[in-house]
Design brief:
single chain; about 260 residues; four-stranded antiparallel beta sheet
């Protein structure tokens, strides 16, 4: 009897133990399920938040792109508007009016008074020191009938010719050098004067304090009058006004006299 009682107790304890184990198992299973549910909910919430963020980011990017497109369109519109405005406000093309007749007339090539005075001064030197029959420009160096010209005046024969051509027209200069006053000659490039052509004679025109009056100063030509003094052999103590007419022309790029201003 006692044996059966012990067995009965063991069975009862076993049943209680099983119930306890089942109960604990149910609790554990419930807790695990709750954790899984919570984990699932957490993941779901995180997924939802991520999707929300991506949606917001996408919207933001779309908004930024839209803003950029709008700004680009606005800039294009402004550029087109400015170009149109510049085209509209561009200054009108100025049409040149035909030049007036007065504008087509070129300025006349006229001689100035400084140049005219220079020519008259050079002429005085030529007639008083070079082409006067008794030159005052000779040195003491002689060779037969030839006397060398002072090189301080003319360095050589070429210098002499150039000086004469700078005062008179080519035609007149040729005449003075070769025929009119043939005493000057070229000796090995140097300038000599042949004393056989020495000549005397009086000259009564006084060039001191001369004045020039221009009569006509037109294109490439000028006529003028030089007012000098005259003191004749029979009136040595009397000075009278004396007038010498002259002409200057523009020849080969320079102004020259058409002849000697002598009497």
């Amino acid at each position: 009897m006692k044996k059966y009682a012990v067995i009965g107790v063991e069975i009862l304890l076993s049943i209680i133990l099983i119930v306890v184990i089942v109960f604990l198992a149910i609790r554990i299973t419930g807790n695990n399920n709750s954790k899984d549910i919570k984990e699932a909910d957490k993941k779901s919430i995180q997924t939802t938040q991520q999707m929300a963020k991506e949606t917001v980011s996408t919207k933001s990017e779309e908004s930024q792109q839209s803003s950029i497109n709008n700004e680009s369109q606005e800039e294009s519109t402004e550029m087109i508007t400015e170009a149109a405005t510049e085209t509209v406000t561009e200054e009108p093309v100025q049409v040149e009016e035909p030049a007036k007749e007065a504008d087509n007339i070129q300025t006349a090539n006229i001689i100035d008074m400084d140049k005219l005075n220079d020519l008259v001064s050079e002429n005085i030197f030529m007639i008083s020191s070079v082409f006067n029959g008794s030159p005052t420009i000779l040195s003491n160096e002689k060779s037969g009938t030839y006397i060398k010209v002072n090189t301080n005046v003319f360095a050589d024969y070429a210098d002499f010719k150039n000086r004469v051509y700078s005062v008179y027209t080519k035609e007149q200069a040729d005449y003075y050098i070769s025929t009119g006053y043939p005493g000057y000659t070229d000796v090995n490039g140097d300038l000599y004067f042949d004393t056989n052509y020495m000549a005397g004679g009086g000259y009564y025109v006084i060039w001191d304090e001369y004045t020039i009056t221009v009569n006509d100063n037109s294109d490439n030509e000028c006529s003028f009058t030089v007012n000098v003094k005259y003191q004749g052999p029979s009136t040595l103590n009397v000075l009278t006004d004396y007038y010498i007419n002259g002409n200057a022309v523009y020849e080969e790029g320079r102004w020259v006299l058409t002849k000697m201003l002598r009497d």
